[in-house]
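$ fold --in a.seq
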Amino acid sequence: MSALSVVFTAVLRGRPVGRKAWCTMREDGSARIGALLFLTLLLSRPSSAETEQPLERYLLLALEHNPRIHAAQGAVEAAGEERRLAGALPDPSVSGGYFISEVETRVGAQRGKVGVSQMIPWPGKSAKKREMAGKAFSAEQEELRRVKAEVVARVRQAYASLYATGQAIRASRESLELLKQWESVLLTDYANAEATQASVLKLQVEMAVAEDGIASLEAEGEKAREELTALVGVDGPLEIPYPRLLPSMRIPKGALERADSVLAASPMVGKMRYLVEEAQANVGLAKRFFAPDFMIMTDYIFTEKSSSSMVSPEENGKDPWVVGASVTVPLWFGTNNSRIRKAREMRRVREKMLESTRDKVGAELAGVVEDYSDAVRRVTLLHEVIVPKARQTLVVVEEAYKNNSVEVLDFLDAQRMLLELEKSLALQEARREKKAAVIDMIIGAEFTRHSFIKAERERGRNER
């Protein structure tokens, strides 16, 4: 049996592999590298029972079931009803009366009356009320857009955290399994007086640290699962496995070049802009309180027939019908002036809030874009340069160990360095997607989410 077969069989059966078995493979470098790759693939092979749910599914579930989105949608519907009510005429008034003391007239005694009246505001007032309600409705729509963008961003961030944690757990378990195999090697070498007790103890300490790290990572994974479950808002249990892939929803090139257009697209800025316009319409409404309101009315009087022979049959007991009108007199100029000053002050307050919101969004966006660019740079550096060199270093150190040039602890250091770099790569990938999610949330960039969901659906149809 070849030395390579000995190593494979020992690994599969859980038996220790001594240094001598490795050393017999010294003449065949490809076999040694193949053994290491075989171990890596064997230990990192995904379980067939693991079923990964795509990010698209969680996004669609959150948009459909998240309670915050439902609340914001309810506020939009209420504002829509308020817009339909704004500017409507007040309800008419119906009056009636009975004359305790009869009013004697030539055609008979008047017994009672009924009347109807309708208040009609100055025409400009109704128009301004409708304008104010329309701006408030648009502000609620912007708030709904902001809530949706925030929920989607938090789903993407929780998914990215789950991905990074899952990748770290996989790498840590793979490293732990390799440490266990090396423990068997060292115990065999120690029994043959080819390794020191310190090497064995240090290896066992490394294994204990790896097990503790895996437990901590699993706790972080549960927190990310709970957050994602809460954001999705689906009743009942939802199985959320660790994703093996993290879809890249990068910000399109040139999307952030024009600051004015980017800030104008922000739902937070849009909401404040509509609130400023609502306040401006309120100033116009306050000025129209100097104009009078009108009331038209009509009364119908019930009259009994007279016993006088001087009244003609046509006029005897004839019920009179009265039509009238009234107008309000805007006499309290101090009150109206106070109303105008209040509306103007509210407009100034909202203008300052709009300016502050623009500054805040611009500063936050600049910081997040810088972090996003840094994450993209680090992912590229780790993926294309550092991690491949670390893998190459591990192969070189492993070969040197088999040639008795280095100690096993040097191999463990190289393995640990590769593990940390792989974790760092997953963390930077998650950081990149988290920052992209925050950018989309700030500017309300549905183009990134919708293009991603469209691409995912197209990919699903092609796979079917």
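$ fold --in b.seq
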Amino acid sequence: MLLILSPQTSPRLDYVCHVIFERVLGLEYSITDNEEKYKAHTDFKLRYLPKSNILFENDIRRQDEDLLLQDKPALSFYLLSNYEEYLPDCPRDQHGRIVHELSFVVRHQLHKQATAQRIALEYKNLLSKQKPDFQWKGLDYHFVPTFDIDIAYAYKGKTFSHFCGALGKAILTLQWNKAKQIIKARHQQDFQDPYDVYDIEKQFCKQHQLQPIYFILTSYRTQYDRNISPCSPYFSDLVKKLKSHAIIGLHPSYHSKNQSDIIKEKNTLEEKGQVKIQSSRQHFLKVKFPDSFRNLIATGITDDYSLGFYDRIGFRNGMATPFPFFDVKENKATNLMLHPLLLMDSAAVQELGMEEKYQKGITQLIQEVKTVGGEMIALWHSNFMPLDSRQLELFKETFMRMC
């Protein structure tokens, strides 16, 4: 049992200790402000001397970043809680997402390592000096392949009006090969849709005995929600096909802003696929703190996979292992588990390209997860890697390296 001496206790300090010591290191802990109790303790013990006061506050305000960087528990809380996204002047893009280039974790180059987990390992090394023979929790590496189905097929399953619109646009822009593809998709039963790479994905997962997770967009068409209709037989057939070897999760639509929206989409996906939905990932990785996660909790979602970068690879929260969502506004931890997303296909290509720089970046990312232990969660989109594309070959290469 680890005893931590702190000037005071708080929900924020308890949360950080739970993640660092219990979840990462597998060590039970207790917090006290009693000096005599601390001195009398004969097992592991640590003295916390705060430099930042963030762990003992109840409000939300801009923090002194220099003090955060000097205070390991405070820094961990800032990263784990996504604290800066609660601030009213947090820089956001057109989709309401935090601008990562201006975020705390990127400005201080903390995203290149699993910062919070490395802090945990520093404490482990310190505590090991107190009990050299103690058997610590192992640092396991586990690859979790995930896929977002934003657009299930390039041509199949489209409505007649969408078929006419797409064909007309192809003809008007003199894209004759595309026009032929659209017509074949409509009339040939054996047409090979370019986005239909699901058998390839299944083959790779089966080969390495991995169970993937598919997050499926289940809404009617809007500007940013462009999957085939959930009323299409192609939709139901695909979900039933995927659930034979994968976990099915919900991909809440771009415009889902409240509980009723998510419940409707969740119920539709469960009905069409005859599956039970407990996992989710936000479309466009679009999250609002704390609303998005409160909505998920209220709709019965237990695990979310949204917290990753949309424009680079790396560790957005300093973690490669799941951790519970902390609601900063309510100042309390919840039971919703957050699974860090470390790589998204389009973001990796945007940052690194597809050749030598990409290979180096992926190697460093994988090595970091193996060093600290945890889930190597990667995300691919079938519509980003159509048949016979360089992106599909990159998927195969990356998948093999992550296994």
